[in-house]
Amino acid sequence: MGIKDLSQIDFNEHLNPEQFEAVNTLYGPVLVIAGAGSGKTRTLVYRVARLIEEGVDPESILLLTFTRKAAHEMLKRASELVGPKSHLVSGGTFHSFCYSQLRTYCRVLDYPSNFTVLDRRDIEDILGLLAEELGLKKETARFPKKSALASIYSKKRNCMKDCLWVLKRGYAHLTHLAPILEALFDAYQKYKRRHALMDYDDLLINWKTILKNYPEIQEAVSRRFNFIMVDEYQDTNRVQAELVRLMAYTHDNVMAVGDDAQSIYSFRGANFKNILEFPELFPGTRIIKLEKNYRTHQPNLDCTNAIIANAQEKFAKRLVAVRSGGRKPLFYEALDENDQAEFVVSRIKDFILKGVEPSEIAVLFRASFHSFQLEGLLNRYGIKYVKRGGLKLLEGAHIKDLLAFLRIILNPVDRLSVLRVFTLIPGLGEKGVQRIYEAMIKVDDPLKAVAEFKTKAKWHQPLKELVHRLLAIKEKDLGLSDLLKGLTSIYEPYLTDRFPDDYPRRLQELNELSLIAGAFEDPGEFLTEVALDPPDEEETYGKGDAVCLSTIHSAKGLEWKVVFIISLVEGRFPSPMALERDEDLEEERRLFYVAATRAKDVLYFVAPRLVNVSGGGVVPGKRSRFLDEIPPGLFEIWGNKSRRFNTPGKQELTTPEPVKVGGNGFRVGLRVRHQVFGPGTITKVIDNEKVAIDFDVVGSKIINTQVAKLSKI
DNA sequence: ATCTAACCTGTTTTT
DNA sequence: CAGGTTAGAT
């Protein structure tokens, strides 16, 4: 296959020889194994450009990845390079792609084409409901929580194994429940079918079933998408690998790009071994390795290479930096979590003063609650930040309330939504709604049945009014956007009641949701979109220049000039849940590797020496084993003891204010003893309730004198 | 006796 | 924010 004239782009000039080779392998299966920061997505995008330039129809190109963010990034860069033609290229996450295919073809499975996609919460709630209905909770002591049920279910389906298999790995204490869980999941499958619902796993598996059982559909799809490319292949699981195999069966024009060292999604069935199996799935695969790193400099790279060198199974790969210069990563051992937060904040302020854009700074952590303390401090200093991976807009109670209203309009016997909406009425709870619901499912017009429901309870009248308002709005037959606005006005009194402190903010969010909804005509499609691709806060609020706080999982594929990785102590990172099995610990190490490779210029490791535990006490922590694994000399240790009294951040916090005496006699300079933290000195009286105290052992804390027991010394 | 509302605590990671 | 628990309301 000769290369035609490269009239538009000089590929050779913009790519190194390995990338060039990958880009120019236009036909047949290709596996690109590439390290962090080596230009993986770039390679993929250039191949799209190359194909189009070759005369390939853009509509026959399909780009797939696992995460929304990676998909978004990939398509954005494609449109930058290729221009308007890139809009004809199909692509997105596996889930959204399967959804669009199922809309067209799911009738062969006896599903209506307007099925709804469940989000995680729905799945958990339905499982919980069914478990209760089947009486499993009463029968079985220590029945797993519904979140665990959902995880077991999803793993079972993603790995294509039975319950016992899943329970044996990871839920060993529950193996006796295997038959019971099979029955529960059976009931769940039936429930979904009855209500025309699919969950995330159904999207993939149902589409796979169709491809497998309907050769004419498989043929049509395979001919339509003549070039399939998968980014972040290490994140795919067996089901996704088979989907690709099935869809490419007429042509084998598949390029998979991935890094086995960055596989961090095994909890949902992704397996880095998948990448090893690719050549088996596609005989004759050409394997290309990318080992040049464009993101960072050699000292950082030496350190990250050392982190991943401790992994037990991996492709041999040693990244070499293209950039020169640079400084070793720094490790700061903070006194406690408060000092950790103060250190990070003071460094952030410093960088911003030096002219670093806040959006070029990120703080990464294992689990989203690790950043609580830091968030408080950032708020106090007025530093703008966005948090990724934590609470999503969708998870706010008010958003869920409004969506429940919408669902009732669309389907009055949606049990979860009925429960959610009707319990908003004071005095009406779970049991009451249950009785109403039973009356609803017996008749043709469920909402009317509610209006006519007979009871002496005091909630009767408010319920009737609510239902009348819902019926009235339903009759108007409004567009989706107006419908949501109308529902918001019905919901508003309950909203102000439920959230007296911050309802204006929540109302604002609801209005934004109505605006987003304006882009959809079909309400079912809107609900699916919200489940599959929830609008994230950053886009919604358009906060431009803010520091990024992120879980490591949500940081994958992104990069910043300055990166802090915090809470590198045992018990936090690696996560205690991952200590039991070797494979889990290996994954935690890869996670650490992903975090450390996000930095372009400056990389900080931070660990507190004392760790807050639940209940309010502190215990001595041990620095994370992953830090100890790194050979000494590959990072610098920072923090002589005097630092904490010299940094600007610390100064501002501890400089005594003009003496102000709190209502209870506490004043600056007073020596006090705290039940848990021991002796300390009051440095600031904030108001009648709160004082700042510099404890002799654990450093500064804000203490509420109404809650904590303080005695004067 | 039955149900609701208020309180307390403990949180992995994603589609 | 949700699950479990419990005090208090009906």
Automatic annotation (TrEMBL):
InterPro entries: DExx_box_DNA_helicase_dom_sf (IPR013986), DNA_helicase_UvrD-like_C (IPR014017), DNA_helicase_UvrD/REP (IPR000212), P-loop_NTPase (IPR027417), UvrD-like_ATP-bd (IPR014016). It comes from the Bacteria. Its EC number is 5.6.2.4. GO terms for cellular component: cytosol. The keyword Thylakoid does not apply. It catalyses: Couples ATP hydrolysis with the unwinding of duplex DNA by translocating in the 3'-5' direction; ATP + H2O = ADP + phosphate + H(+). Keywords: ATP-binding, Helicase, Hydrolase, Isomerase, Nucleotide-binding. Pfam families: UvrD-helicase (PF00580), UvrD_C (PF13361). The keyword Isomerase applies. ATP binds at residues 34-41. GO terms for molecular function: 3'-5' DNA helicase activity; ATP binding; ATP hydrolysis activity; DNA binding. GO terms for biological process: recombinational repair. Residues 13-297 form the UvrD-like helicase ATP-binding domain. Residues 298-557 form the UvrD-like helicase C-terminal domain. PROSITE patterns: UVRD_HELICASE_ATP_BIND (PS51198), UVRD_HELICASE_CTER (PS51217). Belongs to the helicase family. UvrD subfamily. This is DNA 3'-5' helicase.
